[in-house]
Write the structure tokens for this entry.
Amino acid sequence: MRRWTPGRGEIEPRAKLIAVQAVEKLLSRPNTVVEVIDAQYGGLLAQTASVLVPCRQHTVANGKLITGGTTVDVRLSRSGSSWRVTSMHPAKPGPAATRLSAAARQVLASDRIILPPASAADIRSGTIEDAVLTAMLTLSETYRLGISVIRSGHPLNVFGTNRPSDHPRGRAFDTWQINGRAVVDPSTPRTLITNYMRATAATGSHNVGGPYQLPGTTYFSDQTHHDHIHAGYRP
């Protein structure tokens, strides 16, 4: 299993690498392999950062392979050119709901929507708005989605502000990979990313963030969103 390393196109790759190493150490257990799916920013400012690390844990117990996992929000601070971890916050998706909407069941069953463990647990908990779920289903008709975070494991507020984020309220999702191509990778065609951003807005998202600034008030771009596409929905 290949270990995660920062690729081309990363901003502050050292911060991500330190965050990933901290998560691997936190989650390591006997007979357990930690598979980091991605490392994306939950926030990136001049002196502080949030790195979200969705991962799977593969454990051999009694001769059986058990796969689980979580997403960890790793907070870091900068001193000069160095970064250090200040805290880590594993996802808390909550218990599974007894009944799920049709959209939730369809997303969980889809082979075109690749969910990390914490995001799948978010959906099973019944806390994700149907607008988010139907948007993912609509997008999956054209694209294969690599989801990084939906609700749990994301900062409660928009990083560096007092404004509540749409993620913890079940009204947003982030995409780190489109058709198997990482958003952060410079070799990923710009048109693939911008077309996906426009398609996301067409599903009803009022707040689409990504690495490129598109015309219109629906779209935004900043350093935090150079490595993923954010889609937020109104209640």
